[in-house]
Amino acid sequence: MTLDRGRQAASTMFALSAMLLLSGFNCLNGAHAATKVDDSKGPVFLKEPTNRIDFSNSTGAVVECSATGNPPPEMIWIRSDGTAVGEVPGLRQILSNGNLVFPPFRAEDYRQDVHAQVYACMAKNQFGSVISRDVNVRAVVQQYYESEVNNAYVIRGNAAILKCSIPSFVADFVTVVSWNDDSGNVYQYLGNNIVIQSYEAEADNEYVIRGNSAIMKCEIPSFVSDFVAVDVWSDSDGNEFYPGDESSLVVNQYYEAQVYDVFVIKGNTALFKCQIPSFVADHVEIIEWVTTDGQTYGLDDSFDGKYMVLPSGELHIREVGPEDGYKSYQCRTKHRLTGETRLSATKGRLVITEPIGSKAPSFATEAMMMGVRTASNTSTVLTCQAQAYPVPIFRYGVL
Ligand SMILES: *[C@@H]1O[C@H](CO)[C@@H](O)[C@H](O)[C@H]1NC(C)=O
Ligand SMILES: *[C@@H]1O[C@H](CO)[C@@H](O)[C@H](O)[C@H]1NC(C)=O
Description:
Elements: H1 12-21, H2 30-35, E1 41-47, E2 52-56, E3 61-63, E4 66-70, E5 74-79, E6 93-94, E7 100-102, H3 112-115, E8 116-125, E9 128-131, E10 135-140, E11 148-149, E12 164-165, H4 168-171, E13 179-180, E14 186-189, E15 195-197, E16 202-203, E17 218-219, E18 233-234, E19 240-241, H5 246-249, E20 258-259, E21 262-265, E22 270-272, E23 274-275, H6 278-281, E24 284-291, E25 296-298, E26 307-309, E27 315-317, E28 328-335, E29 341-343, E30 348-353, E31 359-363, H7 365-368, E32 386-389
The chain binds 2-acetamido-2-deoxy-beta-D-glucopyranose (2 copies).
One 2-acetamido-2-deoxy-beta-D-glucopyranose (NAG) is lined by residues 57-58, 104, 106-107, 141-142.
């Protein structure tokens, strides 16, 4: 016996079930009970078989039944009339653990009294017995069958129902698991009226002007769109982009930064701007300026040289002289999310104009409207973009 011999704390529940279930209860004699700790108990099911067991002759079946008690109960299988069931060689076995076994059998060995029978499992020791619910055992000899689908006639636009006809002799044991069509589509019933349908999502070509942003769409057929979400975008280079991932959302779009020529009167200040397309501007920062003579100017350089890179990324050149006109200027940008750095596609030249006569100071239009907003304890640079000849004197005032 492999039954649990461990002592279990006496519980009121057990006492109750013992009272209800025990027939022919043998009362301990009073003197005994008083002098000994009474850990004896009638059987209780640990595993009770289910009400119906259907199986095929090719698979066979094991009907499990186990119970505990002290002493460990004896397991007996009985028929509905209460008579004990015995072994039938090759067709029915009773294991010492209480399990009832129906081995696979040949069609000609089918026996109604074995293979189509109502059984019950009984556990008993001297303190009582318990009987399981009825177990309807039904063995089916595997039989060849074909199911059929008949033509359905339907007026265009109406709903059609196709039926799968299953021969009645197997109908109890056969269920429709899926519908398949000629094109290889598979339809499955999932419960809740949800049907698994095969579908294809499409990503169409998108046409976009270079440098502009593009949105790729995943077209999901409407009949599954409630249940289908985009998991990942992948490109032919093997990159994968996940929805909700910020770096993915940017989808590593191609962009070009541009630097335009700057016109300046000799001796004045020039300001080069690195133009970044707005669709990536949030993710791209200017890290340095490069001149054709190989000089680089970074952001962290000091603010008081002739060349300085403003926190906003512009290159500020003071007191422009003819030597500044011989080189051109490019900005180098870095994509914060992808980490990629890139030189601007165009180089800006400094076009130095010789003063002709005199010119009163004038601001570049955008400089007039410039507002600066900065964290309270960070340093910033205020520029005063005005040109004149003679070179103007600047004075900053606090309003
Ligand atoms: C079960 O019955 C089918 C049909 O007669 C037979 O082909 C199959 O071999 C049987 N299975 C076993 C294990 O004998
Ligand atoms: C501002 O100054 C405080 C105190 O020195 C410091 O803790 C904080 O990090 C500074 N903030 C910035 C944006 O530098």
